[in-house]
Specification:
The structure holds 2 protein chains of 2 kinds.
Chain A (H helix, E strand, L loop, with lengths): L1 E2 L3 H12 L5 E3 L27 H14 L4 E3 L2 E7 L2 E6 L5 E4 L3 E3 L3 E3 L12 E3 H11 L7 E5 L2 H12 L4 E6 L6 H9 L5 H16 L4 E3 L1 E7 L6 E6 L12 E4 L2 E5 L2 E3 L2 H5 L4 E4 L4 E4 L12 E3 L9 H18 L5 H29 L14 E3 L4 E2 H10 L3 H8 L12 H12 L18 E2 H4 L24
Parallel strand pairs in A: 1-2, 1-7, 2-3, 7-20, 9-16, 10-11, 10-16, 11-12
Antiparallel strand pairs in A: 4-5, 5-6, 8-17, 13-14, 14-15, 18-19, 21-22
Chain B lengths: L12 H4 L6 E7 L3 H12 L4 E5 L7 H4 L3 E2 L17 H19 L1 H5 L10 E5 L2 H17 L4 E4 H7 L9 E5 L3 E2 L2 H14 L3 E4 L3 E6 L8 E5 L2 E10 L5 H6 L7 E13 L7 E4 L5 E4 L4 E9 L13 H14 L7 E13 L5 E4 L6 E5 L3 H17 L23
Parallel strand pairs in B: 1-2, 1-11, 2-8, 4-13, 11-18
Antiparallel strand pairs in B: 3-7, 4-6, 5-6, 9-10, 10-11, 12-15, 12-16, 13-14, 14-15, 17-18
Helix pairs in contact in B: 2-8, 2-11, 4-6, 4-11
């Protein structure tokens, strides 16, 4: 079973299927492609493929390939829980059902890093992923004066793409430093195998320059303000740790603010099954631990793509291939020798991509200041409206995030902590002087997506009761 | 960044993680509702008391139950023979719950805080004719015990509870039932205990207990992972793990633990006030102040080695919500957003384990199967006996700590 139909999942499914393995590929969205190869939404049709951008066309070809195999593709389908080899699925409008999978490849991708600052909940404040979905699947722009604030590879690519769609972009703010000559040298050294990426980077910069979109380095949004929606934002200069330098604030008038400070792996399922993790903020925080065949610490569970550490779509494709080969090999469908031979090109490419990531690390390092923009009045838990001041009080008495959750309700809402948990962990880290890497997150729980009671309920289930053996059983018959 | 002007919400970490005292009069082991309440009542009586908890306060059974007060007789109290059997036990339990609730009603002001105690009433529904008969049978016992209940059927029932499925044969309503917020009770008891002079320490785990001859102030030498503490008396409030703590002094407690699975939904507009249970199937359900539905009833979760939380089980969620949906059809489109697990202790004979051991004088315990409802009351009674003069009546023999320990004489 491959969970996630983005580049990693599609690759894994293709490779495993090629090796003769029976594969089920599952994705929540209405079409394959994940976040990066977003296909037009229902009701839209591509009339001129050649006019679509390169990314789209590449994604389309991957999807076509997997459509032509025997892989069983389940769309609009979420994985709600995994217990051992039992995978619980829910398709939109259906009822929960269980599939037994001998091997599970988790390729859940990543989601926008939530960044908390005063005004982050105002209408008109969007994440890069959200804006990308609007634009790619619905061809809608959220405003005419969009300001982009972010960092990392997205910071270059996304405003340029938006400019290509005719968006009015006021400015692009990059939290990291402007590339210095030494950085360029390092990057060029890592150029082998990465020329495509580097060409793209150059092209994006050129597009922004042509469109007269100013890029400001070492600046971050510190506040969004407006009546009922964002009308202006305040940005300031930051140091190498992304901490605000006082006295550098500037105001911009906007009608939409796009936040793109990178992505964080969607790790709910990986945590639920009990995988072990390491911590690397530059890869998005918690990064699942894997061996050289991408096996996690949980038997029969593999992880590939951005869900295992955000390194982009090319890495995802190669990791998908690796994981697909690993699963096929572990199932006995191919020999170890075949797997070793077949994985060689992917491994080489991965090495080269990682050389590029290492070279660009200085530029894209996430600073601890990203967690320090909120004020006592800022709502941290959006679902339960819990403000920072209430969290700070609870954190006086504990360093355990579960206890903070119980005290304040932060993390108990519909999003189950996806938006607030990291911020709460950062608060604990600062108050009690523990490294962020050492703050365990709240206990992972099923279902990882909400499910209606009618889709969940199953009245054929009886099973043992907790109480005295002599209690009245469910079906009314006597039991010993 | 801390908001220093508001009253403290909990015991500051600087205090709860500070050095373990070298000695104490009473050592309370376990930071759930029982331990925190015992520490509170003892501290208020001027006794030198130290409470130690190996994890965080209120993270096990006390903090993971749904906070319900059960008064009418329920499925887990009845044997297959029906309410007629075990009549004495059931009557005793019923009277005990009345006493417990009286204490709960005064607890907000006793502890000077809000425990969200609500008397919402409770329904116990019947689907089959047999179940309906059980409702009538237990109603008789409830009257005897002084618990106010009425059995309703047909159009009367539908008018009173339009949210219940129309084809249910009947239901018992008990106006006394209700709930409090389990997330705040034990921590508030602990905070007030500390403010009354108790020493509270978390992240302290007991590794072993050595017993010296009676009469010595250092009767018990307790080895922990934070150092050694001498105690004149011990109160075992270890809940699901009280058996392990008792074994350290050679006692066997008739307690076992089970993992419990609870489901919680997204918030919805108010649909019903009372708690809803089923006389023949496992269901306890309520809608909180925030609008979330909490659906439980005794479904299992799956054990995991410490310090992991027990894993919730999909089949428990599916089976439990099926009963909820059968009873309240309006829940169909309400979404479950998470599950949680707790570990709860059951005593083998359903009677509490409270009092002082005669086999190991100085060693006390305070443990009840329906711990959330009864612990405050039992804790207060235990504290009274530990501080009172000789003419305080002892606990019933059925509560004895020694009842399951084989002795040389028997």
């Amino acid at each position: 079973m491959v969970v996630g139909g983005g580049p990693a999942g599609i690759s894994a499914a293709l490779v495993a299927s090629d090796a003769g393995v029976r594969v089920v590929l599952v994705d929540e969205r209405p079409s394959l492609g994940g976040q990066i190869y977003k296909q037009p939404g229902p009701g839209f049709r591509v009339t001129d493929l050649a006019a679509m951008d390169k990314q789209f066309r590449f994604g389309r070809s991957l999807i076509t390939s997997v459509d032509e195999t025997d892989v069983k593709i389940l769309l609009r389908t979420s994985v709600l829980s995994i217990e051992g080899h039992q995978v619980v699925l829910l398709t939109d409008g259906g009822r929960a059902r269980t599939i037994t999978a001998e091997k599970v490849i988790l390729a859940p991708g990543a989601h926008d890093r939530p960044v908390v600052f005063p005004g982050w909940t105002l209408p008109g404040v969007l994440t890069a992923g959200g804006l990308q979905t609007m634009v790619k699947t619905q061809r809608v722009l959220p405003g005419n004066r969009i300001l982009f604030a972010g960092s990392g590879p997205v910071a270059l690519a996304f405003p340029a793409q938006l400019a290509g769609y005719g968006a009015g972009i006021v400015a692009a703010l990059e939290a990291g430093p402007a590339p210095q000559p030494l950085d360029i040298v390092r990057i060029l050294r890592a150029a082998r195998g990465n020329t495509g990426l580097l060409r793209d980077a150059l092209r994006y910069r050129t597009e922004l320059w042509h469109a007269r979109i100013p890029i400001r380095y070492r600046r971050m949004v510190v506040r969004a303000e407006g009546e009922g929606r964002v009308e202006r934002i305040v940005h300031a200069a930051v140091d190498a740790q992304w901490r605000v330098l006082p006295g550098t604030e500037k105001v911009e008038f906007v009608d939409a603010l796009c936040i793109g400070y990178g992505f964080v792996p969607s790790i709910e399922l990986l945590r639920l099954v009990g995988c072990q993790f390491d911590f690397d903020e530059d890869l998005g925080g918690l990064v699942v631990r894997r061996d050289d065949w991408l096996r996690t610490s949980v038997p029969d569970v593999y992880a590939a793509g951005d869900g295992a550490g955000v390194e982009g779509s090319f890495v995802a494709i190669d990791e998908g291939q690796l994981a697909g080969l690993a699963a096929a090999m572990d199932l006995g469908a191919i020999s170890a020798q075949t797997a070793a031979n077949d994985c060689a090109p992917a491994r080489t490419r991965l090495m080269r991509r990682r050389a590029l990531t290492d070279a660009t690390r200085r530029l894209y390092r996430v600073g601890p200041g990203v967690y320090e923009l909120s004020t006592p009045d800022t709502v941290i838990c959006r679902c339960e409206s819990v403000r920072q001041a209430a969290l700070a009080r609870a954190i006086e008495a504990t360093d355990d995030i579960n206890v903070v959750k119980a005290e304040t309700r932060a993390g108990m809402g519909l999003c189950q902590g996806k938006n607030c948990q990291r911020q709460v962990a950062a608060m604990i880290s600062r108050r009690h002087g523990k490294p962020l890497a050492d703050i365990p997150l709240a206990s992972p729980r099923a279902p990882v997506r909400p499910i209606s009671i009618s889709a969940l309920a199953d009245d054929t289930i009886t099973g043992r009761t907790l109480f005295l053996p002599e209690t009245v059983p469910e079906d009314g018959t006597a039991q010993p | 960044m801390s908001n220093a002007s508001a009253p403290p919400q909990g015991i500051p970490l600087e205090i709860s993680r500070s050095l373990l005292p070298a000695s104490t009069d009473v050592l309370v082991i376990g930071g759930g509702i029982a331990g925190a309440a015992v520490a509170y009542y003892l501290a208020k009586a001027g006794v030198e008391v130290t409470l130690i908890e190996r994890g965080e306060l209120n993270r096990e059974a006390s903090g993971t139950n749904a906070g319900s007060f059960h008064f009418q007789l329920a499925i887990h109290q009845l044997s297959v023979k029906g309410p007629g059997a075990d009549r004495e036990r059931l009557l005793a339990e019923a009277r005990l719950s009345l006493e417990a609730f009286a204490l709960w009603q005064g607890l907000d002001s006793e502890l000077d805080g809000s425990l969200d105690v609500h008397q919402t009433g409770g329904w116990m529904v019947a689907e089959t004719a047999e179940q309906l008969q059980t409702l009538y049978d237990k109603h008789e016992l409830e009257q005897l015990a002084g618990i106010e209940t009425e059995v309703l059927t047909g159009t009367t029932l539908r008018a009173r509870a339009p949210y219940l499925a129309e084809d249910l044969l009947g239901a018992t309503y008990c106006p006394m039932e209700g709930h409090a917020n389990p997330l705040v009770v034990a921590p508030l008891y602990a905070l007030r205990a500390m403010q009354s002079g108790a020493q509270i320490r978390t992240h302290v785990e007991v590794l072993g207990i050595e017993t010296s001859p009676i009469g010595r102030p250092e009767r018990f030498t307790v080895k922990t992972d934070a150092g050694v503490i001498q105690a004149h008396r011990i109160v075992n409030c270890g809940g699901a793990w009280s058996g392990e703590l008792a074994a350290m002094v050679g006692l066997r407690l008739p307690v076992r633990s089970e993992g419990l699975h609870v489901n919680v939904t997204e918030p919805r507009p108010r649909m019903f006030e009372p708690m809803i249970q089923h006389i023949g199937r496992r269901l306890t359900m309520k809608q909180t102040n925030n609008g979330n539905f909490i659906i439980g009833g005794g479904w299992p979760s799956s054990a995991a080695p410490r310090p992991q939380r027990y894993r919730t089980i999909w089949n428990s969620a599916a089976g439990n919500t099926a009963v909820a949906l059968r009873v309240v059809p309006g829940l169909a489109d309400v979404r479950v957003i998470r599950t949680w697990s707790g570990v709860i202790a059951f005593t083998d004979d359903l009677s509490p384990i409270v009092g002082e051991s005669e086999l190991v004088p100085g060693y006390h315990a305070c443990l009840a199967s329906t711990g959330f409802t009864f612990s405050p009351m039992l804790a207060r009674q235990l504290a009274e006996r530990m501080t009172a003069s000789l003419d305080t009546p002892p606990f019933p023999k059925g509560y004895s700590l020694d009842r399951a320990t084989p002795t040389a004489r028997t």
